[in-house]
Amino acid sequence: MSNVPATYEGGCLCGAIRYRCEGEPLTLYTCHCTDCQRQTGAAFGMSLMVLREKLQLLSGTPVTYTKRMPDDGREKYAKLCGTCGSRVWVEFSVAPAVANIKPGTLDDTGWLKPIGHIWTSSAQPWVKIPDDELCFAGQPASMLPLIEAWQKRPRS
Ligand SMILES: [Zn+2]
Ligand SMILES: [Zn+2]
């Protein structure tokens, strides 16, 4: 696994939105929930959790899509490019100190390797998750196990 660069930049597909982040991320995981499958149009989503204060918008003005979770009323604020539709990061009503970068929008994705997997109960049947990786069938009660596993991950 490659080490995390000191700063990392990314942007949307059309290039209107650019961002930069610095510092060690809190965690990186995949989500196999049906919302992520629909929202990405793919088998799963990926989330790179960072401190919101370390994330800087360099150009463009994201559009916000608010998704209210039916179970407990918490809200997610997806930051999207209004032109090309790329989702660049997500913020949370219950955790304003963090943001989840959608890491496929990074310029360099070579260092990304998820430390865990959530909502595996709705994973596509052909997705093979290694037995020794941290998995949650649904939404974890706390993100702490994913954060601790990221801190303890092997580094090169
Ligand atoms: Zn765009
Ligand atoms: Zn999800």
Features:
binds zinc ion; mainly beta; glutathione-dependent formaldehyde- activating enzyme (gfa); three-stranded antiparallel β-sheet; single chain; 156 residues; 2 helices; eight-stranded mixed β-sheet
Task: Give the N-terminus to C-terminus distance in angstroms.
Answer: 6 Å
Order of helices and strands: EEEHEEEEEEEEH
Overall geometry comes to: globular
- Mean pLDDT across every amino acid position: 95
Total DSSP helices: 2
- The CATH class label is Alpha Beta
Rg (CA only): 15 Å
Total strands: the figure is 11
What would you say this structure looks like, in words?
With 156 residues, the protein is mainly beta. It has a single domain, classed as glutathione-dependent formaldehyde- activating enzyme (gfa), CATH 3.90.1590. Helix content is 10%, strand content 35%. It contains two helices and eleven strands. The strands form two sheets. Strands 6-7-8-9-4-3-10-11 form an eight-stranded mixed beta sheet. A three-stranded antiparallel beta sheet has the order 1-2-5, with no helix packed on it. A hairpin with a 6-residue loop joins β7 and β8. The longest helix is centred in the C-terminal third of the chain and has 8 residues. It is globular and about 40 Å long. The termini are close together. The mean pLDDT is 95. The protein binds zinc ion (ZN) (2 copies).
What is the strand and helix layout of this fold?
Layout: E1 7-11, E2 18-22, E3 27-31, H1 34-40, E4 45-51, E5 55-59, E6 63-68, E7 75-80, E8 87-92, E9 98-101, E10 116-118, E11 134-135, H2 144-151
Parallel strand pairs: 3-10, 10-11
Antiparallel strand pairs: 1-2, 2-5, 3-4, 4-9, 6-7, 7-8, 8-9
The structure holds zinc ion (2 copies).
